[in-house]
Write a structure and sequence with these properties.
heterodimer; A: alpha/beta; 9 strands; B: 403 residues; 5-stranded mixed beta sheet; 4-stranded antiparallel beta sheet; 11 strands
Chain lengths: 213, 403
């Protein structure tokens, strides 16, 4: 998968950013490379990820995925992109608090069939030390636990590129490393790329290219 | 799980409230329609023998007419009348131009001392008479002449004449089995024919024989070749209560059978009341559905987080739409069926009550009511389905405004 940004500038940032190597540039993200976008708050990290997800359209310029312009996507095309080509972990996690952690993950099968889903869920939950929380309602889990469930949900999906917005913010160092290892493992298996955003340039997994905003 | 997610924050009280509103809307409309159709059919039944909008007119009998003023309608007058707006066709009553008398004692020829009377007959084209005319026809050569009499004549005999004379009462059926002897004087020569009453009329206040017979008899039994002018006309009109037509009749001193007009006016009033009620019902229906639509929108908004999140995860809008559509289909189906059921129950009750008063209502639901309920179901399900679909698309995925 090749994501190409052409002279992108988010409208809220227009005229207020200094020269960098992302906005108003021609830039590509290619799978299976792993990118880390690091910046302080307010530099547009999340905005970029939301553009790729299609939930923000307030920008100038063009975004292409494999030479297809995103602005012309229909709702079904977006659904296809989100369910089988890109997986996302957002800062606000977007889990269903009224369902158990496991139900939140099983729900993926309603969107597209996944082989050995239950087995995969338990294996990943075990790796991230969260197996005991699977039967609990998401609403009562701690943010760190929820973050791990959200990471597992993204990893279970089909994707060519994984997009994560500060996914480790509530995890301790040990859990960050476990998550990093799991993510890297899945990425390798799927031969998929990664776009990760972070406040600093540290990441618990190997990164091919760092972009500073 | 999808249902649990997408219908998780619903309030049953609101659902019941908006369904009740929609039910009342559908029910009022269906009931108004059913009642309107039932009662207009009832009114039309009263005019069974003469179709809906027929008038019988004659010239008013005044002092002058006794002194030679003509009381018949000339051809020119008939033509003028038929050209009036709202008049469909005009047909003259034909009457016998030869002396006629009848007796009810079979086997005796000529005058008898039992029950004999001078008679007159009239006829109108069969097309102008509605009802059971199967036996009411005649062709030259047939000995028996079928007769149609006003049912009032029989009542007059049964309840007036017979008791006072110590004679038995007869039923319409008995009477129709009795053969009458008719005697016509054709240029002084008596001609005898058999006759039988085959049907009764509520509306034409005259003794009717088939038009074919009078046409034949007036030609054969009478020496004069002049066609007599009619003293009464049957007029088919589109709307007998049309004020312009009524004015025309008045200005020419034409009289019409008032009851016919009363019925027409009643039917007009029913139409008006039906129209107003129908309009109000449609208004109620639209308002109740507006409430229903808003409830649906509210439902979507209550579960906006779930819908947005599922869209975030890549679920297609059409898939999210399904649980809502199923609920909608069930509710609309339930509302339509329940409304039909209640209309049916009330109609059955009305049917029983009305038949106690001797009024025969149509039994069961009218087809138009069934059709309308289907139409409402289809139309509103469709509109609502589009609304839900659009609502889901409009919700879209989460939009974050943070940078």
């Amino acid at each position: 998968m090749k994501i190409r940004l052409k002279n992108i500038v988010p409208l809220p940032l227009k005229g207020s950013f200094s020269a960098n190597n992302l906005w108003e540039q021609e830039r590509c993200f290619e799978s299976p490379r792993k990118y880390l976008i690091c910046a302080r708050s307010g530099r547009g990290k999340s905005t970029l990820l939301h553009m790729l997800h299609g939930s923000r359209q307030d920008y100038e310029g063009q975004v292409f995925i494999d030479d297809q312009e995103l602005s012309g996507f229909s709702s079904n095309q977006w659904a296809e992109l989100r369910s089988s080509r890109m997986a996302f972990v957002f800062q606000d996690l977007r889990l269903f608090p009224q369902l158990t952690a496991e139900e939140n993950l099983i729900l993926l099968e309603k969107i597209r069939p996944i082989t050995d889903l239950t087995q995969q869920i338990h294996a990943m939950a075990k790796t991230l030390d969260i197996e005991s929380s699977l039967k609990k309602k998401c609403g009562i889990l701690s943010l760190g636990q929820q973050q791990r469930i959200a990471i597992i949900r993204a990893l279970l999906q089909n994707f060519e590129c994984l997009v994560m917005d500060e996914p480790f913010s509530h995890l301790d160092e040990e859990n960050q490393l476990k998550a990093g290892r799991l993510i890297e493992q899945v990425l390798n298996k799927k031969n998929a790329g990664l776009i990760l955003s972070s406040l600093n340039d540290q990441a618990p997994l190997s990164i091919d290219e760092r972009i500073y905003l | 799980m999808m249902r649990q997610l997408l219908l998780s924050r619903q309030k049953p009280a609101q659902l019941i409230g908006s369904s009740l509103g929609a039910f009342l809307g559908v029910f009022f409309l269906l009931f108004t329609l059913q009642a309107y159709l039932d009662f207009s059919q009832l009114l039309n039944q009263k005019n069974q023998l003469i179709r809906g909008e027929y008038l019988i007119i004659n010239k008013r009998v005044s002092m002058l007419s006794s002194f030679g003023e003509t009381r018949t309608f000339s051809q020119a007058e008939q033509d003028e009348l038929s050209k009036q707006k709202g008049v469909v066709q005009v047909a003259p009553f034909r009457s016998n131009q030869f002396p006629a008398s009848g007796s009810i004692l079979p086997g005796t020829q000529g005058s008898n001392r039992g029950l004999a009377a001078e008679l007159f007959f009239e006829s109108v084209p069969n097309a102008m008479i509605d009802g059971d005319l199967e036996q009411f026809k005649w062709a030259p050569g047939e000995q028996e002449i079928p007769i149609l009499i006003p049912s009032n004549y029989l009542k007059l005999y049964n309840f007036g004449f017979a008791p006072s004379q110590g004679m038995p009462q007869v039923s319409p059926k008995t009477l129709s089995q009795i053969s009458f002897q008719l005697r016509f004087d054709s240029l002084g020569i008596p001609i005898y024919k058999q006759a039988r009453i085959v049907a009764y009329t509520e509306r034409i206040p005259s003794i009717l024989v088939p038009d074919a017979f009078l046409a034949y008899a007036n030609k054969v039994y009478v020496s004069s070749t002049k066609t007599p002018e009619a003293s009464r006309l049957m007029v088919e009109v589109k709307d007998p209560s049309n004020p312009i037509l009524l004015q025309y009749l008045d200005s020419h001193a034409y009289e019409s059978n008032e009851e016919q007009l009363k019925n027409a006016r009643l039917s007009n009033a029913l139409k008006m009341v039906g129209g107003i009620l129908g309009f109000i019902s449609i208004l109620i229906l639209l308002l109740s559905f507006l409430g229903f639509f808003q409830y649906a929108e509210l439902s979507l908004n209550r579960n906006a987080y779930e819908i947005k999140t599922l869209l975030d995860l890549g679920m297609k809008p059409s898939q999210i739409y399904q649980p809502y559509f199923r609920v909608l289909l069930m509710m609309m189906g339930g509302i339509s069926i329940l409304a039909l059921l209640v209309v049916w129950l009330i109609q059955s009750w009305l049917y029983d009550t009305a038949s106690d008063y001797g009024l025969m209502l149509n039994e069961g639901l009218q087809n138009a009511v069934l059709f309308t309920s289907l139409l409402i179901f289809a139309l509103f399900t469709l509109v609502q389905a589009f609304g839900i679909r659009r609502g889901i698309r409009n919700l879209g995925p989460h939009v974050s405004s943070s940078i």
